[in-house]
Structures are given as C-alpha cells and as structure tokens.
Amino acid sequence: MKDKIAPVKNVLRLAELGESLKDRGIRTPGIGVVYGETGFGKSTALTWYGVRQVRAVYVRAFQVWTPMTMLETIAGELDISPQRSLVHTLHAIVRELVTQDRMLIVDEADYLVDKKALLNTLRDLHDNSTMPLILVGMADFVKKLKSRIDQRQFAGRVAFELEFKPLDLADTTLLAEQLLNDGITVHPELLAKLHAACEGSTRLVCVGLQRIESLAIKKGLKKVTVNDWGDRPLHMMEVGNRATRIATNDLRA
C-alpha cells in the first residue's frame, strides 16, 4: 500500500483547527486538545500535520516523565542541550520555540493529567513563548482535565477540543482509493463489509485494505469483490471475535 495520509474528515478538521491556533491573536489561548478512542488515527494525523506540514516539535509522553525529563526530551527535539537547571532549560526552550516558530505537540497526554507539575510546566512554555500547544490523548483525558479543580488554569487556556470520531463509509472508501496500489480497487459491497467489520477504526481499515491488496496481488485481481474475498477475516480482531463465537457455539451444542 502507499505510504501517505488520506484526507479523511478527522485529518481535515485537525488541519483546520491547527491553523486556527497558528493564526490566532496573541492574547488568545493557543492550546488545543485532541482526543478519541485508540485506533482512530490520532497519532498518525498529528505526526502528518505537525511534523510534515508545520514542523512542529512532536514528543510522546511517558509515565516516568518528570518536569526535567520532559524538558530534556523537548530540548532534544529542538537540537539544544539541557541547561544546568530546570528554569534555565525552560527559558532555552522558550527562546528556541519562538526563534524557530515551532508548534509543540505532546502525544499520550493521558500520562500528564494527574501530574500537576508537568501540565504547569507545559503551561509555562505556552504562556512564555505564545507558540501553539496541542495535547493528544484518550477521551478520559479531557474529562479529567475538566474535572480537576487544580487544573482550571490550564483548562482555561484550551482554545479547542477535537474528538476523533469513527470513520464513516465515505472515509473508508477514500482510504481505499488513496492507499491501495495503482490498478487495484475494491467493490463497494466489500468496502461496506470492511467498514462494518472495523467499526470506524482507521487502524483496522488499513489492516483490512492491506489484506485485500495482498489477495489481489496473489490472485492477479484488479478489482476484489465479496465473492473473491469469501469468508476470510478482514483483521485480527475479527479472527478473535470469530474464535469466540465458535467456542461459544461449541459450548452450547
């Protein structure tokens, strides 16, 4: 399959809202929150938009982060050396964010919500640099952020919340059109079957398309139909679900 990002609705909304952070007034909050279930393409879309489109500083949070290790990670992405203290490292990062005109994106932000020092340090980076900041996490991250009394200062700086929603059938069709190798297509009935099996997961749709493409190459097919596919599973979770159904039926027999 082709190595590219298809402009599905989640990706387009992300780009639109990301640009709104870049173009905002200097006194307007510049923090965005992106959330959604696993497999919906958040990290892939943020990597594409942030790294390829706007040269953002993209880092992944870890459970073991402290304010210093977080700043050291960000400093490394900016190609600067950590300074002798936490505050000096923070000021060095602020200068580079402004000089390089870089947005900051922090993935796996679920690890941060219960650590006030980490969120406050990110708020300091945002406030002092005025550069956009986007946090990416699961749905519970947003709920926690809003419900924590001690995080009101951070939550008050959030300019937008973007939920990555399940792909619709048009998105699944677009992925097939853009990602499958040239000369290989999928019959609409099989695409609808794939879409239903994946329940809107971008990751699982891509797995299914890879399997369909492999069958097309193996059998020399230009267009893969439901009959061509037969009863093959479209992704590994479907294999697990099928095994569970068979086992349950055997126990009932």
Question: Could you explain the architecture of this structure?
Answer:
The structure is a single chain. This protein is of the alpha/beta class. It has helices at 9-22, 42-53, 67-77, 86-100, 116-129, 139-147, 152-155, 169-179, 188-198, 202-219, 226-229, 236-252; strands at 31-35, 57-60, 104-107, 133-137, 158-163, 185-186, 223-224. Strand 3, helix 5 and strand 4 form a beta-alpha-beta unit. The longest helix has 18 residues, at 202-219. The strands form 2 sheets. The protein has a 5-stranded parallel sheet with strand order 2-3-4-1-5. The protein has a two-stranded parallel ribbon with strand order 6-7.
The number of helices is 12
Strand content: 5-15%
Unreliably modeled segments: 239-253
Whole-number mean pLDDT: 88
How would a textbook summarize the main sheet? 5 strands, parallel
Side-by-side strand order of the widest sheet: 2-3-4-1-5
Number of strands: 7
Order of helices and strands: HEHEHHEHEHHEHEHHEHH
Q: Look at the helices and sheets and give the structural class.
A: alpha/beta
| Overall morphology | elongated
Report the end-to-end length measured between terminal Cα atoms.
Answer: 42 Å
- Please estimate the helix content: 55-70%
State Rg.
22 Å
Assembly of the depicted chains? single chain
List keywords for this structure.
253 residues, alpha/beta, 5-stranded parallel beta sheet, two-stranded parallel sheet, 7 strands, 55% helix, disordered C terminus
